[in-house]
Amino acid sequence: MPHNTTPRAALIATVRRVVIKIGSAVLSGDSGLNLAQIEKLSANLWQLRQRGYDVIVVSSGAVAAGKKDLGICGRPQTIALKQAAAAIGQSRLMRFYRSAFRSRGGNVAQILLTRDDLANRRRYLNARNTLMTLLEYGIVPIINENDTVVVDEIRFGDNDNLSSMVASLVEANLLVILSDVDGLYDRDPRQHAEARLIPEVERISADIETMAGNASGQLGTGGMASKLKAAKRATLQGVAAAIINGLDPDNLLRFFDGEDIGTYFIPASARMTAKKHWIAFTKKPRGKLFVDAGAHRALVMEGKSLLPSGIRGVEGTFERGDSVSLYDDSGNFFARGVTNYTLAELLHIMGKKTSEIIDILGYKYADEVIHRDNLVLSTADDDRPLD
Ligand SMILES: Nc1ncnc2c1ncn2[C@@H]1O[C@H](COP(=O)(O)OP(=O)(O)O)[C@@H](O)[C@H]1O
Ligand SMILES: N[C@@H](CCC(=O)OP(=O)(O)O)C(=O)O
Protein backbone atom coordinates (compact mmCIF):
# COMPACT_ATOMS: atom_id res chain seq x y z
CA MET A 1 0.00 0.00 0.00
CA PRO A 2 1.28 3.49 -0.77
CA HIS A 3 2.06 5.90 2.01
CA ASN A 4 1.49 9.13 0.15
CA THR A 5 -1.67 11.13 0.76
CA THR A 6 -3.03 12.06 -2.66
CA PRO A 7 -6.84 11.77 -2.84
CA ARG A 8 -6.54 8.58 -4.87
CA ALA A 9 -4.06 6.96 -2.48
CA ALA A 10 -6.26 7.88 0.47
CA LEU A 11 -9.28 6.41 -1.27
CA ILE A 12 -7.65 3.23 -2.44
CA ALA A 13 -6.62 2.54 1.12
CA THR A 14 -10.29 2.49 2.11
CA VAL A 15 -11.82 0.63 -0.86
CA ARG A 16 -13.54 -2.64 -0.04
CA ARG A 17 -15.80 -3.23 -2.99
CA VAL A 18 -14.90 -2.46 -6.58
CA VAL A 19 -16.72 -2.74 -9.90
CA ILE A 20 -14.31 -3.29 -12.79
CA LYS A 21 -15.64 -2.70 -16.30
CA ILE A 22 -13.71 -4.28 -19.15
CA GLY A 23 -14.37 -2.88 -22.63
CA SER A 24 -14.44 -4.89 -25.87
CA ALA A 25 -11.37 -2.98 -27.03
CA VAL A 26 -9.42 -4.54 -24.13
CA LEU A 27 -10.60 -8.11 -24.67
CA SER A 28 -10.60 -8.47 -28.40
CA GLY A 29 -8.87 -7.72 -31.64
CA ASP A 30 -10.19 -7.67 -35.19
CA SER A 31 -10.43 -11.43 -35.34
CA GLY A 32 -12.33 -11.88 -32.09
CA LEU A 33 -11.45 -12.59 -28.47
CA ASN A 34 -7.88 -12.22 -27.28
CA LEU A 35 -7.53 -15.25 -25.02
CA ALA A 36 -4.13 -14.34 -23.60
CA GLN A 37 -5.59 -11.03 -22.51
CA ILE A 38 -8.53 -12.68 -20.71
CA GLU A 39 -6.10 -15.02 -19.00
CA LYS A 40 -3.90 -12.17 -17.70
CA LEU A 41 -6.80 -10.00 -16.68
CA SER A 42 -8.43 -12.88 -14.83
CA ALA A 43 -5.18 -13.55 -12.97
CA ASN A 44 -5.10 -9.93 -11.81
CA LEU A 45 -8.80 -9.82 -10.95
CA TRP A 46 -8.33 -12.93 -8.87
CA GLN A 47 -5.33 -11.39 -7.19
CA LEU A 48 -7.45 -8.41 -6.16
CA ARG A 49 -10.01 -10.82 -4.78
CA GLN A 50 -7.21 -12.54 -2.84
CA ARG A 51 -6.16 -9.19 -1.41
CA GLY A 52 -9.61 -9.00 0.15
CA TYR A 53 -11.54 -6.76 -2.23
CA ASP A 54 -15.07 -7.66 -3.25
CA VAL A 55 -14.65 -7.72 -7.02
CA ILE A 56 -17.58 -7.37 -9.43
CA VAL A 57 -16.75 -7.46 -13.14
CA VAL A 58 -18.80 -5.91 -15.93
CA SER A 59 -17.40 -7.46 -19.08
CA SER A 60 -18.13 -6.60 -22.69
CA GLY A 61 -16.85 -8.86 -25.44
CA ALA A 62 -19.81 -11.14 -26.24
CA VAL A 63 -20.35 -9.67 -29.69
CA ALA A 64 -16.63 -9.74 -30.43
CA ALA A 65 -16.46 -13.36 -29.24
CA GLY A 66 -19.34 -14.54 -31.41
CA LYS A 67 -19.04 -12.68 -34.68
CA LYS A 68 -16.44 -14.99 -36.19
CA ASP A 69 -18.89 -17.91 -36.21
CA LEU A 70 -21.19 -15.74 -38.30
CA GLY A 71 -18.34 -14.99 -40.68
CA ILE A 72 -18.26 -11.33 -39.70
CA CYS A 73 -15.10 -9.20 -39.63
CA GLY A 74 -15.28 -5.71 -38.12
CA ARG A 75 -18.52 -4.60 -36.49
CA PRO A 76 -21.80 -6.50 -37.10
CA GLN A 77 -24.00 -4.03 -38.96
CA THR A 78 -27.51 -4.92 -37.82
CA ILE A 79 -29.04 -5.33 -34.38
CA ALA A 80 -30.11 -8.87 -35.30
CA LEU A 81 -26.52 -9.80 -36.17
CA LYS A 82 -25.17 -8.20 -32.99
CA GLN A 83 -27.69 -10.14 -30.94
CA ALA A 84 -26.89 -13.38 -32.73
CA ALA A 85 -23.16 -12.76 -32.24
CA ALA A 86 -23.73 -12.04 -28.55
CA ALA A 87 -25.74 -15.26 -28.17
CA ILE A 88 -22.83 -17.22 -29.58
CA GLY A 89 -20.13 -15.20 -27.88
CA GLN A 90 -21.42 -14.83 -24.33
CA SER A 91 -20.99 -18.49 -23.46
CA ARG A 92 -17.52 -18.54 -25.05
CA LEU A 93 -16.54 -15.48 -23.07
CA MET A 94 -17.72 -17.06 -19.82
CA ARG A 95 -15.97 -20.32 -20.61
CA PHE A 96 -12.63 -18.52 -20.84
CA TYR A 97 -13.18 -16.51 -17.68
CA ARG A 98 -14.28 -19.63 -15.86
CA SER A 99 -11.28 -21.69 -16.85
CA ALA A 100 -8.87 -18.83 -16.02
CA PHE A 101 -10.39 -18.41 -12.56
CA ARG A 102 -10.75 -22.15 -11.92
CA SER A 103 -7.09 -22.77 -12.68
CA ARG A 104 -6.30 -20.44 -9.76
CA GLY A 105 -8.83 -21.90 -7.36
CA GLY A 106 -11.42 -19.17 -7.98
CA ASN A 107 -14.86 -19.19 -9.47
CA VAL A 108 -17.14 -16.93 -11.48
CA ALA A 109 -20.86 -16.47 -12.06
CA GLN A 110 -22.64 -15.00 -15.05
CA ILE A 111 -25.28 -12.29 -14.60
CA LEU A 112 -27.08 -10.88 -17.62
CA LEU A 113 -29.16 -7.76 -17.08
CA THR A 114 -31.48 -5.44 -18.95
CA ARG A 115 -32.31 -1.91 -17.84
CA ASP A 116 -35.79 -3.13 -16.93
CA ASP A 117 -34.28 -5.43 -14.34
CA LEU A 118 -32.85 -2.48 -12.46
CA ALA A 119 -35.80 -0.14 -13.03
CA ASN A 120 -38.20 -2.53 -11.34
CA ARG A 121 -37.55 -2.37 -7.60
CA ARG A 122 -38.32 -6.00 -6.84
CA ARG A 123 -36.02 -7.23 -9.59
CA TYR A 124 -33.42 -4.66 -8.56
CA LEU A 125 -33.44 -5.99 -5.01
CA ASN A 126 -33.34 -9.54 -6.28
CA ALA A 127 -30.33 -8.84 -8.48
CA ARG A 128 -28.69 -7.18 -5.51
CA ASN A 129 -29.36 -10.13 -3.22
CA THR A 130 -27.92 -12.54 -5.76
CA LEU A 131 -24.79 -10.43 -6.16
CA MET A 132 -24.34 -10.13 -2.40
CA THR A 133 -24.69 -13.89 -1.97
CA LEU A 134 -22.07 -14.54 -4.64
CA LEU A 135 -19.68 -12.09 -2.99
CA GLU A 136 -20.24 -13.73 0.39
CA TYR A 137 -19.14 -17.00 -1.16
CA GLY A 138 -16.04 -15.45 -2.70
CA ILE A 139 -17.32 -15.86 -6.24
CA VAL A 140 -16.60 -13.15 -8.80
CA PRO A 141 -19.80 -12.08 -10.63
CA ILE A 142 -19.29 -11.29 -14.30
CA ILE A 143 -22.06 -9.08 -15.61
CA ASN A 144 -23.03 -8.17 -19.15
CA GLU A 145 -26.07 -6.68 -20.81
CA ASN A 146 -28.51 -9.40 -21.87
CA ASP A 147 -27.89 -8.48 -25.50
CA THR A 148 -29.96 -11.22 -27.11
CA VAL A 149 -33.25 -10.06 -25.61
CA VAL A 150 -32.89 -6.29 -25.38
CA VAL A 151 -34.82 -3.91 -27.54
CA ASP A 152 -34.18 -0.17 -27.47
CA GLU A 153 -36.57 0.61 -24.62
CA ILE A 154 -34.86 -1.75 -22.21
CA ARG A 155 -31.24 -1.31 -23.26
CA PHE A 156 -28.54 0.11 -21.07
CA GLY A 157 -26.98 0.98 -24.42
CA ASP A 158 -23.43 0.42 -23.35
CA ASN A 159 -21.61 -1.30 -20.56
CA ASP A 160 -20.13 1.92 -19.17
CA ASN A 161 -23.65 2.93 -18.26
CA LEU A 162 -24.42 -0.55 -16.93
CA SER A 163 -21.27 -0.55 -14.78
CA SER A 164 -22.17 2.73 -13.08
CA MET A 165 -25.59 1.35 -12.21
CA VAL A 166 -24.04 -1.83 -10.90
CA ALA A 167 -21.66 0.26 -8.76
CA SER A 168 -24.62 1.84 -7.05
CA LEU A 169 -26.54 -1.46 -6.92
CA VAL A 170 -23.78 -3.14 -4.93
CA GLU A 171 -22.72 0.04 -3.09
CA ALA A 172 -19.19 -0.15 -4.39
CA ASN A 173 -16.56 2.38 -3.26
CA LEU A 174 -14.86 2.43 -6.63
CA LEU A 175 -15.65 1.96 -10.33
CA VAL A 176 -12.66 1.17 -12.54
CA ILE A 177 -13.19 1.35 -16.31
CA LEU A 178 -10.59 -0.49 -18.36
CA SER A 179 -10.32 0.71 -21.94
CA ASP A 180 -7.79 0.85 -24.76
CA VAL A 181 -6.72 4.37 -23.89
CA ASP A 182 -4.60 5.65 -20.97
CA GLY A 183 -7.46 7.68 -19.49
CA LEU A 184 -9.30 10.90 -20.31
CA TYR A 185 -7.37 13.23 -22.59
CA ASP A 186 -8.16 16.89 -23.15
CA ARG A 187 -9.15 15.88 -26.72
CA ASP A 188 -9.46 12.63 -28.63
CA PRO A 189 -5.91 11.20 -28.74
CA ARG A 190 -6.72 9.29 -31.94
CA GLN A 191 -7.25 12.56 -33.78
CA HIS A 192 -4.79 14.83 -31.96
CA ALA A 193 -1.23 13.75 -31.31
CA GLU A 194 -0.76 16.66 -28.88
CA ALA A 195 -3.65 15.53 -26.62
CA ARG A 196 -2.74 15.51 -22.92
CA LEU A 197 -3.82 13.03 -20.27
CA ILE A 198 -5.82 14.45 -17.38
CA PRO A 199 -4.67 12.63 -14.23
CA GLU A 200 -7.41 13.78 -11.89
CA VAL A 201 -10.90 15.26 -12.22
CA GLU A 202 -12.56 16.85 -9.24
CA ARG A 203 -15.91 17.59 -10.86
CA ILE A 204 -17.19 16.50 -14.26
CA SER A 205 -18.15 19.91 -15.59
CA ALA A 206 -19.48 20.73 -19.07
CA ASP A 207 -15.90 21.64 -20.08
CA ILE A 208 -14.70 18.18 -19.16
CA GLU A 209 -17.62 16.58 -20.97
CA THR A 210 -16.86 18.34 -24.23
CA MET A 211 -13.37 16.81 -24.22
CA ALA A 212 -14.86 13.39 -24.81
CA GLY A 213 -16.62 14.00 -28.14
CA ASN A 214 -18.94 11.25 -29.34
CA ALA A 215 -16.93 8.75 -31.30
CA SER A 216 -16.04 5.30 -30.02
CA GLY A 217 -13.21 3.07 -31.20
CA GLN A 218 -13.37 0.27 -33.79
CA LEU A 219 -14.54 -2.27 -31.23
CA GLY A 220 -16.14 -0.25 -28.45
CA THR A 221 -19.66 1.10 -28.23
CA GLY A 222 -19.89 4.21 -26.11
CA GLY A 223 -16.54 5.95 -26.55
CA MET A 224 -15.12 8.30 -23.95
CA ALA A 225 -18.40 10.21 -23.64
CA SER A 226 -20.19 7.21 -22.15
CA LYS A 227 -17.26 6.59 -19.79
CA LEU A 228 -17.50 10.14 -18.54
CA LYS A 229 -21.24 9.80 -18.05
CA ALA A 230 -20.64 6.64 -16.06
CA ALA A 231 -17.95 8.34 -13.97
CA LYS A 232 -20.31 11.24 -13.37
CA ARG A 233 -23.13 9.03 -12.24
CA ALA A 234 -20.80 7.15 -9.93
CA THR A 235 -19.10 10.16 -8.37
CA LEU A 236 -22.41 11.93 -7.79
CA GLN A 237 -23.38 8.97 -5.66
CA GLY A 238 -20.11 9.10 -3.72
CA VAL A 239 -18.42 6.31 -5.67
CA ALA A 240 -14.90 7.13 -6.89
CA ALA A 241 -14.13 6.28 -10.52
CA ALA A 242 -11.07 5.72 -12.65
CA ILE A 243 -10.40 5.14 -16.33
CA ILE A 244 -7.21 3.21 -17.00
CA ASN A 245 -5.63 1.39 -19.89
CA GLY A 246 -6.46 -2.31 -19.71
CA LEU A 247 -4.47 -3.30 -22.79
CA ASP A 248 -1.70 -3.92 -20.28
CA PRO A 249 -3.60 -5.99 -17.68
CA ASP A 250 -0.95 -5.24 -15.05
CA ASN A 251 -2.15 -1.65 -14.99
CA LEU A 252 -5.00 -2.86 -12.82
CA LEU A 253 -2.61 -3.95 -10.08
CA ARG A 254 -0.45 -0.84 -10.57
CA PHE A 255 -3.51 1.30 -9.96
CA PHE A 256 -4.34 -0.58 -6.77
CA ASP A 257 -0.70 -0.30 -5.71
CA GLY A 258 -1.14 3.48 -5.81
CA GLU A 259 0.68 4.30 -9.05
CA ASP A 260 -0.56 7.50 -10.65
CA ILE A 261 -1.84 5.99 -13.87
CA GLY A 262 -5.06 6.74 -15.73
CA THR A 263 -7.61 9.37 -14.81
CA TYR A 264 -9.02 9.41 -11.33
CA PHE A 265 -12.42 10.99 -10.59
CA ILE A 266 -12.90 12.21 -7.05
CA PRO A 267 -16.30 11.28 -5.58
CA ALA A 268 -18.73 14.05 -4.64
CA SER A 269 -17.37 15.20 -1.31
CA ALA A 270 -18.10 12.93 1.59
CA ARG A 271 -21.14 11.45 -0.16
CA MET A 272 -23.51 14.18 0.93
CA THR A 273 -23.23 17.89 1.42
CA ALA A 274 -24.25 19.25 4.82
CA LYS A 275 -27.44 20.56 3.23
CA LYS A 276 -28.38 17.19 1.81
CA HIS A 277 -27.54 15.58 5.08
CA TRP A 278 -29.95 17.94 6.70
CA ILE A 279 -32.71 17.18 4.17
CA ALA A 280 -32.14 13.49 4.69
CA PHE A 281 -31.81 13.26 8.41
CA THR A 282 -33.00 16.40 10.14
CA LYS A 283 -35.89 17.96 8.34
CA LYS A 284 -39.11 16.17 9.10
CA PRO A 285 -41.13 15.38 5.96
CA ARG A 286 -44.54 17.03 5.81
CA GLY A 287 -45.95 15.30 2.77
CA LYS A 288 -45.65 12.76 -0.01
CA LEU A 289 -45.26 13.14 -3.76
CA PHE A 290 -46.02 10.22 -6.05
CA VAL A 291 -44.15 10.37 -9.36
CA ASP A 292 -44.44 8.48 -12.65
CA ALA A 293 -41.84 6.13 -14.11
CA GLY A 294 -40.29 8.82 -16.33
CA ALA A 295 -39.74 11.20 -13.42
CA HIS A 296 -38.40 8.36 -11.27
CA ARG A 297 -35.87 7.48 -13.94
CA ALA A 298 -34.87 11.12 -14.46
CA LEU A 299 -34.21 11.56 -10.74
CA VAL A 300 -32.55 8.23 -10.00
CA MET A 301 -30.69 7.48 -13.20
CA GLU A 302 -30.08 10.88 -14.77
CA GLY A 303 -29.49 13.17 -11.81
CA LYS A 304 -32.26 15.58 -12.85
CA SER A 305 -34.65 17.82 -10.90
CA LEU A 306 -38.33 17.01 -10.35
CA LEU A 307 -40.68 18.86 -12.70
CA PRO A 308 -44.45 19.17 -12.20
CA SER A 309 -45.19 17.01 -15.25
CA GLY A 310 -43.90 13.86 -13.53
CA ILE A 311 -46.06 14.18 -10.41
CA ARG A 312 -49.15 11.96 -10.28
CA GLY A 313 -50.35 12.52 -6.75
CA VAL A 314 -49.70 14.53 -3.58
CA GLU A 315 -50.53 14.06 0.10
CA GLY A 316 -49.91 15.87 3.38
CA THR A 317 -49.94 19.46 4.55
CA PHE A 318 -46.83 21.21 3.41
CA GLU A 319 -45.66 24.70 2.60
CA ARG A 320 -43.00 25.96 0.26
CA GLY A 321 -39.58 25.00 1.76
CA ASP A 322 -40.90 21.93 3.58
CA SER A 323 -39.41 18.50 3.14
CA VAL A 324 -41.46 15.86 1.28
CA SER A 325 -40.93 12.16 0.62
CA LEU A 326 -40.98 10.83 -2.94
CA TYR A 327 -42.60 7.58 -4.03
CA ASP A 328 -42.37 5.76 -7.36
CA ASP A 329 -45.38 4.48 -9.29
CA SER A 330 -45.36 1.22 -7.35
CA GLY A 331 -45.63 3.19 -4.12
CA ASN A 332 -42.01 2.64 -3.06
CA PHE A 333 -40.25 5.42 -1.20
CA PHE A 334 -37.07 6.49 -3.01
CA ALA A 335 -36.07 10.04 -2.13
CA ARG A 336 -36.64 13.10 -0.05
CA GLY A 337 -36.44 16.72 -1.08
CA VAL A 338 -37.41 20.30 -0.35
CA THR A 339 -40.42 21.49 -2.34
CA ASN A 340 -40.65 24.85 -4.07
CA TYR A 341 -44.45 24.67 -4.09
CA THR A 342 -47.19 24.18 -1.47
CA LEU A 343 -49.64 21.31 -1.48
CA ALA A 344 -52.41 23.58 -2.76
CA GLU A 345 -50.23 24.78 -5.64
CA LEU A 346 -49.14 21.27 -6.57
CA LEU A 347 -52.74 20.11 -6.76
CA HIS A 348 -53.12 22.60 -9.62
CA ILE A 349 -49.85 22.10 -11.49
CA MET A 350 -49.11 18.39 -11.09
CA GLY A 351 -48.99 16.57 -14.40
CA LYS A 352 -48.66 19.91 -16.22
CA LYS A 353 -45.79 21.29 -18.27
CA THR A 354 -43.39 23.79 -16.71
CA SER A 355 -44.44 26.31 -19.36
CA GLU A 356 -48.03 26.13 -18.05
CA ILE A 357 -47.21 27.02 -14.42
CA ILE A 358 -47.66 30.77 -14.87
CA ASP A 359 -50.94 30.37 -16.75
CA ILE A 360 -52.31 28.13 -14.04
CA LEU A 361 -51.05 29.84 -10.88
CA GLY A 362 -50.49 33.37 -12.16
CA TYR A 363 -46.88 33.23 -10.88
CA LYS A 364 -43.92 30.86 -10.81
CA TYR A 365 -41.33 30.31 -8.09
CA ALA A 366 -39.18 27.93 -10.13
CA ASP A 367 -39.40 25.56 -13.09
CA GLU A 368 -38.75 22.58 -10.89
CA VAL A 369 -40.83 21.39 -7.96
CA ILE A 370 -37.71 20.00 -6.28
CA HIS A 371 -34.33 21.17 -7.46
CA ARG A 372 -31.66 18.50 -7.76
CA ASP A 373 -29.55 20.29 -5.14
CA ASN A 374 -32.39 19.87 -2.65
CA LEU A 375 -32.98 16.19 -3.33
CA VAL A 376 -31.50 13.16 -1.59
CA LEU A 377 -31.98 9.66 -2.98
CA SER A 378 -32.60 6.74 -0.68
CA THR A 379 -29.99 3.99 -0.61
CA ALA A 380 -30.58 0.93 -2.75
CA ASP A 381 -31.23 -1.69 -0.12
CA ASP A 382 -33.78 -0.02 2.13
CA ASP A 383 -35.08 3.34 3.22
CA ARG A 384 -33.29 3.42 6.52
CA PRO A 385 -31.12 6.49 6.14
CA LEU A 386 -34.08 8.68 5.28
CA ASP A 387 -37.12 7.17 6.93
N1 LIG B 1 -10.93 12.91 -24.79
C1 LIG B 1 -10.69 11.59 -24.98
N2 LIG B 1 -9.82 10.94 -24.17
C2 LIG B 1 -9.59 9.61 -24.33
N3 LIG B 1 -10.16 8.85 -25.28
C3 LIG B 1 -11.03 9.43 -26.14
C4 LIG B 1 -11.35 10.82 -26.01
N4 LIG B 1 -12.26 11.12 -26.96
C5 LIG B 1 -12.52 9.96 -27.62
N5 LIG B 1 -11.77 8.92 -27.14
C6 LIG B 1 -11.79 7.55 -27.66
O1 LIG B 1 -12.59 6.67 -26.83
C7 LIG B 1 -12.12 5.33 -27.07
C8 LIG B 1 -12.56 4.37 -25.97
O2 LIG B 1 -13.94 4.10 -26.05
P1 LIG B 1 -14.52 2.73 -26.68
O3 LIG B 1 -13.98 2.57 -28.08
O4 LIG B 1 -16.00 2.76 -26.51
O5 LIG B 1 -13.82 1.61 -25.79
P2 LIG B 1 -14.33 0.42 -24.82
O6 LIG B 1 -14.44 -0.78 -25.65
O7 LIG B 1 -13.24 0.32 -23.81
O8 LIG B 1 -15.65 0.83 -24.20
C9 LIG B 1 -10.63 5.49 -27.14
O9 LIG B 1 -10.03 4.50 -27.93
C10 LIG B 1 -10.41 6.91 -27.67
O10 LIG B 1 -9.90 6.94 -28.95
N1 LIG C 1 -22.75 -6.15 -24.43
C1 LIG C 1 -21.80 -5.93 -25.50
C2 LIG C 1 -20.86 -4.78 -25.23
C3 LIG C 1 -21.44 -3.43 -25.28
C4 LIG C 1 -20.44 -2.34 -24.91
O1 LIG C 1 -20.77 -1.39 -24.20
O2 LIG C 1 -19.16 -2.48 -25.37
P1 LIG C 1 -17.90 -1.61 -24.89
O3 LIG C 1 -18.08 -0.15 -25.32
O4 LIG C 1 -16.73 -2.25 -25.51
O5 LIG C 1 -17.83 -1.70 -23.38
C5 LIG C 1 -20.92 -7.17 -25.71
O6 LIG C 1 -20.74 -7.95 -24.75
O7 LIG C 1 -20.37 -7.33 -26.79
Helix/strand order, N-terminal first: HEHEEHEHHEHHEHEEHHEHEHEHEEEHHE
Q: Which small molecules are bound? A: adenosine-5'-diphosphate, the ligand N[C@@H](CCC(=O)OP(=O)(O)O)C(=O)O
Overall 3D geometry? globular
**CATH architectural type of the largest domain:** 3-Layer(aba) Sandwich
Whole-number tally of structural domains? 2
Helical amount: 25-40%
CATH superfamily of the largest domain: Acetylglutamate kinase-like
Mean pLDDT, nearest integer? 88
Strand order of the largest sheet: 5-6-4-1-7-9-10-8
Annotation, overall tally of beta strands = 15
- Flag low-confidence runs: 380-387
Ends apart, CA distance between termini: 38 Å
Kindly estimate the percentage of residues that lie in beta strands according to DSSP: 15-25%
CATH topology of the largest domain: Carbamate kinase
Rg: 22 Å
Instruction: Tell me the number of helical segments per DSSP (H or I, 4 or more residues long).
Output: 15
Largest sheet: 8 strands, mixed
Main CATH class of the largest domain: Alpha Beta
The structural class is alpha/beta
Subcellular location: Cytoplasm
GO molecular function: ATP binding; glutamate 5-kinase activity; RNA binding
Domain PUA: 287-370
Keywords: Amino-acid biosynthesis, ATP-binding, Cytoplasm, Kinase, Nucleotide-binding, Proline biosynthesis, Transferase
